[in-house]
Amino acid sequence: MLSPADHASAAVAVVGLGYVGLPTALALLAAGNEVIGIDVSEARLDAIRLGAVDLLPSDHERLATAGERFTLAADPAAIAGARTVLICVPTPVDRHLVPELEALSSACAAVVAHAVPGQLLVLTSTTYVGTTRDLLVEPLNARGLRVGTDVFVAFSPERIDPGNAQHAQDRTPRVVGGTGEFASLLAAAVLERTAPSAHILPSPEDAEMTKLWENTFRAVNIALANEFAEDCNGLGLDPLPIIEAAATKPYGFMPFYPGPGVGGHCIPCDPHYLLWQLRALRISSPLIDTAMTAIASRPRKVVRRARELLADRGRSTSGARVLVVGVAYKPGVADVRESPALEILEELAEEGAKVHFTDPLVPSLRLGAELLSSVAVPEAESWDLILVHTMHPGVDLSWLADRTAVLDATYRLNSVPAKAVV
């Protein structure tokens, strides 16, 4: 059996090469590991080979210089060549806000089927409490691989902030919960090659709940920030300077900011894994439930405000030319997963508006059966309403200064005197 230090420097397989798996693989490459990247999507593997993926500049450099130490494969049997296997697959919710576990279950089943003695298996996907035991520990034991003796298992939630170089992996501690002390030490040794430290918890369940708490905390406070912004609007106040003033207090306050809604596969999804599990146990969590309901309804409030602004100008929503500025779910990324912009565009279109969008990072998106392309020169056209959804770094929006029909759902558009907010 290898020591934690020797184990950590051996080859690592990363199952799932999305916004978590690919940066994780590149961080391990930078640390000196050989990495086997596995993804069921051949299109994703081809995009990685071409470098046509959404990454921070530093990660693009790592990918360009990876060479033969980075092997790509679609067959999960390739994990047999690794000492450590990291499972990094998405855990979304469906349109009814119920966890979709198919991708996670399939990935874990494939890893269990191809695991070999001596390996460390680490689940990183955000999910319900008990997943690591349900999908890895019990199936491994059933297969005849004794967890804690033949193979080792841990949970360590991902902490990647896409598009944000200030929150790079090497600046963010990892949380680790193993199925025993040695499993925790192995996982910590591997992950500390990509992070400043590892905080060890007694069990996978503790680590799973830690991740749910992190994102539930954010969700509740974002819902509160949105509500506070509406309160300020009713009192004729701008919420941003008030929030920033409150943030000068060095204790007891953490700033959260209002916006058009919440996107990505973290905040709008993760707390529902907790609520789903609690409901099955007949445990109520009314504050979290209310916050998630508020988050889900936020895009509809943006649409309602857009409708009001059009009506104030004597325009019906039907037939109105509406431009949405920025459709990515957050600044600096090309990711539209769960983006509030999609629901906003869809609802406006259903009300008869002629919807368009402009986003330098998103060339096109599908709205129902229609494929919309980003408007290249939006300032050259006339719009009945311009709705600012995402402000990407470095994008010049000074052309909005003389427009009189602007809905700023970001609350950060200081250059437009006549703007309205939600």
From TrEMBL:
SUPFAM superfamilies: 6-phosphogluconate dehydrogenase C-terminal domain-like, NAD(P)-binding Rossmann-fold domains, UDP-glucose/GDP-mannose dehydrogenase C-terminal domain
Molecular function GO labels: NAD binding; oxidoreductase activity, acting on the CH-CH group of donors, NAD or NADP as acceptor; oxidoreductase activity, acting on the CH-OH group of donors, NAD or NADP as acceptor
UniProt key word NAD: yes
One of the protein's GO biological processes: polysaccharide biosynthetic process
Domain UDP-glucose/GDP-mannose dehydrogenase C-terminal residues, every copy: 323-415
Keyword annotations: NAD, Oxidoreductase
UniProt cross-references to InterPro entries, sorted A to Z: 6-PGluconate_DH-like_C_sf, NAD(P)-bd_dom_sf, UDP-Glc/GDP-Man, UDP-Glc/GDP-Man_DH_C, UDP-Glc/GDP-Man_DH_C_sf, UDP-Glc/GDP-Man_DH_dimer, UDP-Glc/GDP-Man_DH_N, UDP_ManNAc/GlcNAc_DH
NCBIfam families listed in its UniProt record: NDP-sugDHase
Family the UniProt entry places it in: Belongs to the UDP-glucose/GDP-mannose dehydrogenase family.
Protein name: Nucleotide sugar dehydrogenase
UniProt organism field: Actinacidiphila oryziradicis
